[in-house]
Design goal:
306 residues, alpha/beta, Rossmann fold, Alpha-Beta Plaits, 2 domains, 4-stranded antiparallel sheet, 29% strand
Length: 306
């Protein structure tokens, strides 16, 4: 799949000497949803701001569908829609007027039918003539998405799009994002909600201290880096792990009532059969067992720690 965004050796050093980005390279594929994850101050917003032409880089370059963001600024920016973290709309305007203005700023001809279709897709049509100040926080967030889509961009940046939005509305917005992807829009999502990335993304990029430390297909990442745990629920609690089980990566939980075996799915062999044999030889009895896979959140925390 071709890359619609090419980020090459991008760096950003502020006047204070703070290095926000350090030699970042990343290709973003046409029509995918990529989640950009990282702790506060990792460089997520700086990266988005440079790609969208808001902040100037200190080094490197960015191509948007072949257009250089500095040399071909207008052509590159026309392809991009940005939904920033902050709710930046004219409170006295209506969603319809805000979208029409944004469309005009990008040199697009008026198109009431298109704006109406976007309002309907965002469940904003019944609020199209309401003042934005009268809308809920979630509705205002939808107006921001509508404003970003008004000029029909091929690429959409969502910087913490569901911050402060309740769970039900968050799921509604996930559906909107899926529909945009189905219509061929490439989506770059930054989020603090790990479940959002796990639910939505095709790929995950992890950024920390201004460096991209990993880029991987989400499912492959889960499979390659995810630890699994086997939980043996014992009939009799233990105060210590028997010596005969010392060769296994075991821990006790639930006041000694649960024996936990942690293994790495990358090895291809978990030795569960050998463990169960050793457990029987140690005279331990259990009434239930289950396995659990690491969540993306656990994987992310482990990556950042490393």
């Amino acid at each position: 799949m071709s890359a619609v965004i090419k980020i090459e050796n991008l760096s950003k050093v502020y006047a204070s000497g703070f290095k926000a980005l350090d030699n970042v390279s990343l290709d973003i594929r046409q029509g995918e949803i990529i989640a950009l994850l990282g702790p506060n101050g990792a460089g997520k917003t700086t990266l988005i701001s440079i790609v969208c032409g808001i902040v100037n880089p200190s080094g490197g370059r960015v191509l948007i569908d072949g257009y250089d963001i500095i040399k071909d600024y207008r052509a590159a920016r026309r392809l991009i829609g940005l939904v920033p973290q902050e709710l930046a709309t004219d409170s006295f305007e209506t969603p319809t007027a805000t979208m029409a203005l944004s469309r005009g700023i990008f040199g697009k001809k008026p198109d009431a039918a298109f704006i109406e279709s976007v309002l309907k897709s965002l469940s904003l049509y019944d609020k199209k003539d309401s003042r934005i100040m009268a809308l809920s926080g979630g509705m205002k967030r939808r107006v921001m998405i509508g404003k970003a889509l008004a000029h029909e961009p091929r690429i959409l940046f969502l910087d913490e799009p569901t911050a402060g939005v309740d769970v039900e509305l968050r799921k509604d917005m996930w559906n909107v994002v899926r529909e945009l992807k189905n219509n061929g829009v490439t989506i770059i999502l930054t989020t603090h909600y790990i479940e959002e990335a796990e639910e939505m993304a095709d790929r995950v990029a992890v950024i920390n201290k201004g460096e991209i430390i990993l880029v991987e297909d989400k499912d492959v990442l889960m499979r390659k880096l995810g630890e699994k745990r086997l939980y043996l629920h014992l009939l009799q609690p233990l105060t210590a792990i028997p010596a005969g089980l010392s060769n296994f990566n075991l821990a006790l939980q639930s006041e000694g009532k649960t024996l936990v075996y942690t293994y790495d799915t990358r090895t291809g062999s978990s030795d569960i059969t050998h463990l169960l044999d050793a457990v029987e030889q140690a005279g331990l009895r259990f009434n239930d067992l289950d396995t659990r896979q690491n969540s993306l959140e656990e994987i992310f925390v482990n990556l950042v720690k490393k």
